[in-house]
Each structure stands twice: as C-alpha cells, then as structure tokens.
C-alpha cells in the first residue's frame, strides 16, 4: 500500500470523517421555537433547505441511479458520473446542516438516517477508488475479490436507501409521522413502496427479463405467488397480537394475511401444467384485485380522504384485472409474445403502470397528508392528478434506466423499427465509446418478423448469442417431458 493514490485516499477519508463528525456535533437543533406539542416550528422552509432538497434529490435520485447502471455495465462513464454525484451530495450535506428557517425536532429520523447514508457513501467512494486502482496481483488481488462484491451490493442498495431518505426528508420537513402516527405512516409507506417496487420489477422483466424468466424454467406466477404466500404468512401472525382482544382493524389486516397465503399457495400449485411445464395463472393478479377492494374499504371521515382511498382502490383493482387480461388474453398464457423475448404489446404496460400509480396514491393517503390537503385550497381531484403525475415520472425514469442498461449490456442486439413499415437494422446501437467491444456488427444477418404488426420488430440476428434465439418450451405445453 505504498501507493500515493492509496495513501491520498486514506488521508482524505479520515479528513472527511473528522469533518463530518465535527459538523454533526457542531450545531444544535434547539427546540425553542417549536410550539408545545408540535414537531416543527411555524416558519417556512428557508431557501438553503429548498436548495438542499433539490440538490440531494437530483444527486441521489437521478445521478447515482444512472451511475449505478453505468457501473453494472462497466461503462467508462461510471466513475465520472459518481464523482459528480458525490460532489453534489457533499454540497447537499453542507446545505442540510446550514439551514435556518423552520426548525425540526432534534434526532429526527431524516438526520439520523442521513449519517448512515453519508457513511455508506464515503465507504462506497473509498472502495470505488480502490477498485479504480486496478491492483490485481498478490494480496491486492485477494482484497479486490472481497471489495468488489461489497461495492456492488452497497451500490445497488443505494437507490433503495436514498428512496427511504427522501421520504424521511418529506415527513421531517412537514413534521409528520411522529408519535402516534408512526404505525400508520409505516404501513402506508411500506405497502405503497411495495406496490411501486413490484411495478419496477415488472418493468425490468417486461423490458429485459423475459428470456431470463424463461430460463428459470418456472412461470412468473410461481415467483409472484411464493412472495405473496410468504408475506401473507408474516401478516397473519404479526397484525394481531394473538391471545389478546381483537381491536380496530385487526380483523381486516389478519384476514388479508390469511387470503394472501391461501391464494399464494394455490398460485404456486397452478404454475405448472399437467406435464410439469411452467404455466401462467390468474392468482397474483386476482390477489392484487382483492387487496385493492379490501384496502380501500376503510371508512374515511374527510371528503378528500374518501376520494383518494377510493381512487387508490380502483387503481389497484384495475392493475389486478388488467394483469389477468394480459396473461390470459394478450399473452394467451405464454411468457412472451415472441420467442426472442424482445417484444411486448402496449397493453402489457397497463398493469405495470397502474401499480406505480396505486403505490403513490397509497403513500399519499395518510391521515396527516389528507388533513393538509383538506385544509389547503387544493381539491381531491387535483391531489390525485399530482400523485398520478409522480407515478408517471418514476415510471418514465425506470424505463429510461432499464433502456440505458439494455443498450449498454446488449449493444450488438440493437435494432430499430422504422415507422414506414420496413424494419431496418441500425448500427448506431450505443453511443460511441461505450461499447465494451467496439466492434459494430453490420447486422446483415438480421431478419425481420413483421407479421404481428406493431411491436413485432423482432430482428433476430444470427449473432453469436444463440441463447437469445433458443426457443423456449413455455406455452408449448406438450413439448417438455413426454
Ligand atoms: C466516486 C467514486 C467511485 C468510484 C471510483 C467507483 C469505481 C468503480 C469501479 C472501478 C467499478 C468496476 C469494478 C470492477 O468491475 O472491477 C465499479 C463498479 C460499480 N460501482 Fe462504483 N465507483 C464509485 C462510486 C459508486 C457509487 C456512489 C455507486 C452507487 C450509487 C457505485 C456503484 C457501482 C456498481 C453497482 C458497480 C457494479 C459492480 C458489479 O456488480 O460488478 N459506485 N465502481
Ligand atoms: C437522499 C437525499 C438526502 C440526503 C442524503 C439528505 C441529507 C440530509 C442531511 C445530512 C441533513 C442534515 C441533518 C442534520 O441536521 O443533522 C439534512 C437535513 C434536512 N433535510 Fe435532507 N437529505 C436528503 C433529501 C431530502 C429531501 C428530499 C427532503 C425534503 C423533502 C429533505 C429535508 C431535510 C430537512 C427538512 C432537513 C432539516 C432537518 C433538521 O434540521 O433536523 N432532505 N438532510
């Protein structure tokens, strides 16, 4: 480790740690201006804090996720992107500490979790710099083998943790979710977040994972049902303290857990046909539908709350119903529309997007949020439209990230469907310089398959990727085991 870069890295690491430590102690959140029984003072958020919010949302919500995809695909833009993100994050950190204006209770969850996230980021940068050193021989080679998975796991956890930190920021800024509200907030944010996460996973599978699911030799409903069953099991035993009296919504939450594991088991069973081949089924879609109906049935006092809950329920029910239609009628029980797994029908986006929308609506429907809207001049319809807009933004960004991954990870498969009906291969797959092997195929061997009309531009190349063209047994039930 006599390397100057390594020594420099270590030195800056310690400098940063000590600076951060000092900063964390350096200022004191006096609760003096916070009225008795309140969680925030009456002043508005000051400009410094607003800039903090925007900069950190941009760094952690936009730059780092893009950088993560660039890291996974080993792009040479990974390091510059993450360096930019880290610089912005550092600025955001200072601004977060430097704000005046509204005051917040000390040791709020946002400032506590910020320390963890900040330390992880510093660790991530240090590990990254070490990897960047490319010391691959001797002891360093062994250390590198340990460090790589760490950098990889923390890197992929970052977007999730940042998501949590942004939510913590929102509730801290408004003084929400404290004291007796903690439980309800947790329920709404975890459940809502889970719907969005399911939407993100379905987006990834639809865009780049169809072949991957086929290769697992199981139908997608097997995995979905297994998760549903496991989650149901947990809820059956945790939503009510068994042996004590049944209070409030215990019955609803517990019976919801019960139907989840019952249905989940049925879904796992139905995910094979009589010959043991993978088979699609309606169960996960149906569970979503019933959940939407049940969750929106809690009686609400406020008008806007009733409206938000009912729209949430309808959205989730529509997600479940459209998922069933997609599987049974659009895909006709196949895993993919095409054997190449590179295509989709526009209908397939509907259940996926509705999951994002349902997630945002549910996350935005806690008592305190509903009170805030009711007291403002905004009406329920506008609030719901805002939630749908947020859902569209996150949906768009997820699509963009998956597309970026696809272009960088599978550059040689790039094809383009020109709207004049002729499918033509385009050689400009990925931006120059980003291809792992700079070799561009002329793509002569491509053949188009236009019968299906729109969305059927599956140009399958005779490229050296036989696996992509391997016909799957999915949906051809009798071919499997005879
Ligand atoms: C600014 C400092 C950083 C540097 C110098 C750096 C450097 C690197 C290097 C050299 C690799 C390639 C490792 C290899 O393949 O052997 C890599 C991979 C990766 N980095 Fe970073 N990185 C930095 C920050 C980050 C941050 C902040 C994140 C997350 C938000 C991140 C996420 C990743 C991921 C997900 C991979 C892919 C690992 C894998 O699965 O193979 N990096 N990084
Ligand atoms: C993931 C991105 C973010 C990170 C890493 C982050 C980090 C931080 C840090 C380090 C502080 C100083 C904490 C302290 O005073 O001890 C802070 C303060 C604060 N941040 Fe963030 N922040 C992020 C996003 C947000 C967002 C999106 C919001 C609001 C919507 C927000 C609202 C606040 C508020 C209200 C404070 C003042 C808390 C206090 O004075 O106790 N932050 N943030």
Automatic annotation (TrEMBL):
Residues 1-26 form the signal peptide. Residues 33-134 form the DUF2427 domain. Keywords: Membrane, Signal, Transmembrane, Transmembrane helix. This is Protein YTP1. PANTHER family: INTEGRAL MEMBRANE PROTEIN (AFU_ORTHOLOGUE AFUA_6G12730)-RELATED (PTHR31685), PROTEIN YTP1 (PTHR31685:SF2). It comes from Metarhizium anisopliae BRIP 53293. CDD domains: Cyt_b561_FRRS1_like. The keyword Membrane applies.
């Amino acid at each position: 480790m006599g390397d100057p870069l390594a020594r420099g890295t270590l030195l800056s690491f310690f400098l940063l740690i000590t600076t951060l430590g000092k900063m964390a102690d350096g200022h004191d959140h006096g609760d003096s201006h916070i009225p008795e029984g309140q969680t925030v003072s009456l002043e508005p958020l000051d400009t410094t804090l607003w800039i903090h919010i925007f900069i950190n949302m941009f760094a952690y919500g936009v730059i780092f996720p893009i950088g993560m995809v660039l890291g996974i695909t080993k792009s040479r833009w990974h390091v510059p992107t993450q360096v930019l993100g880290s610089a912005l994050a550092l600025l955001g950190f200072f601004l977060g500490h430097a704000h005046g204006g509204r005051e917040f209770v000390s040791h709020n969850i946002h400032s506590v979790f910020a320390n963890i996230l900040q330390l992880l980021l510093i660790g991530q940068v240090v590990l990254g710099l070490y990897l960047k050193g490319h010391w691959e021989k001797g002891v360093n080679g062994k250390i590198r083998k340990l460090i790589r998975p760490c950098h990889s796991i923390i890197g992929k956890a970052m977007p999730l943790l940042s998501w949590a930190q942004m939510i913590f920021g929102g509730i801290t800024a408004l003084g929400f979710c404290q004291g007796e509200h903690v439980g309800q907030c947790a329920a709404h944010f975890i459940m809502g977040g889970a719907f969005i996460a399911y939407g993100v996973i379905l987006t990834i599978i639809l865009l780049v994972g169809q072949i991957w699911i086929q290769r697992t030799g199981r139908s997608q409903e097997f995995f979905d049902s297994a998760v549903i069953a496991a989650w149901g099991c947990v809820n059956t035993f945790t939503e009510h303290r068994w042996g004590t009296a049944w209070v409030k919504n215990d019955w609803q939450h517990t019976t919801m857990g019960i139907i989840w594991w019952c249905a989940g088991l049925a879904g796992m069973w139905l995910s094979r046909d009589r010959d043991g081949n993978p088979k699609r089924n309606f169960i996960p879609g149906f569970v979503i539908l019933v959940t939407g109906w049940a969750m929106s049935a809690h009686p609400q006092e406020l008008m806007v709350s009733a409206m938000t809950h009912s729209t949430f329920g309808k959205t989730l029910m529509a997600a479940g119903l459209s998922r069933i239609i997609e599987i049974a009628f659009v895909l006709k029980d196949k895993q993919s529309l095409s054997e190449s797994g590179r295509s989709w029908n526009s209908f397939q986006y509907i259940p996926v997007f509705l999951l994002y929308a349902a997630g945002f609506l549910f996350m935005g429907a806690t008592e305190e949020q509903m009170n805030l809207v009711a007291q403002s001049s905004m009406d329920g319809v506008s609030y719901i439209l805002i939630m749908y807009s947020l859902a569209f933004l996150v949906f768009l960004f997820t699509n963009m990230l998956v597309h970026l991954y696809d272009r960088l990870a599978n550059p040689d498969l790039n094809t383009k469907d020109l709207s004049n009906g002729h499918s033509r291969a385009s050689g400009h797959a990925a931006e120059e310089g980003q291809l792992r092997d700079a070799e561009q195929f002329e793509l002569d061997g491509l053949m188009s398959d236009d019968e299906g009309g729109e969305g059927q531009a599956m140009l399958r190349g005779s490229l050296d990727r036989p696996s992509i063209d391997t016909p799957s047994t999915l949906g051809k039930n009798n071919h499997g085991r005879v």
